Amino acid sequence: PLRPRVFRPKASPLSALSMRPQLGWTLLWTFLPLVAAVRPVGRRGMLTLGCSCAVCSLQTPPAHALASLSSPTAADTTRNQQVDRAFARSMAAGMGQYEAAVASQKQALFTRLLETLPSTDAVVVELGMGTFPNAPFYVSTRSGMGPQRLDIIGIDPNDSMRDYALRAADKAALPALGHSVRFARGVGEAVPLADGCADAVVSTLTLCSVRDQHQCLLEVARVLKPGGQFLFLEHVLSETDPILARQQQLLTPLQVQSADGCHLNRCTLDVIRAAPGFAAVDASYFDLRGFWFLNPTIAGIARRAV
Q1: Which of 96, 138, 109 is nearest to 233 (CA)?
Q2: Is residue 6 part of a domain?
């Protein structure tokens, strides 16, 4: 089988296209074997809710589930289950260092978010839930703040993420604390929920992968209640390093193919600020260290217009 290649740095600035050993986990080279094995279908491979497994999206909701999912309307028959399983395994095993690096930013964001939610019950939609790395932040940041019961609904087109996500919820003791955690197959461009049903929407490393950011943000605004909060943390095109930005532009086609639709060259904060339906966007840009083309990052919270 093919193995991720580690190149040696050279003198030329563009030789930074080579990976330093400590960055070997980075997504591009992690998923190169998938390209050789099977041509992947984009992560957002469908625009309506669908599920090949009745358990995934038609499961009986918990008694205190606060929002109803739409019934499946179209199955995504083009996704490759072998690639989806491999991608889910890679995300579960290969993102630990990155999650540790952004933990303080996430903690601050989730603390702000939970402080604004109703004190009794609240619905939170996780777009691109993936393996649910955000699960601990619904517990560690609460400390008496926020809702007594959360109905967390994860939306993701990759069914193979479901078991990882539910295990992460169990590990964080969310069900034991009385919170509902559900996983439904769907995409950000067609969220399978009713208008104005969510108190908050969360997107971490998801807007890089959706096919249509504008449509996705329209959906975020649609499902949010008036005054609802949209929490986001995304890697973006570098604003501070022109050479890195050029590298991100060059590598994006390969990244899209090898990492389930992920783009390295998006100016996501500009798109969020221009999106209709939001009254305020409080966000910042910063650079992580040690993650090369994933260093440029935005994080913040946008408020739905009342």
Answers
A1: 109
A2: no
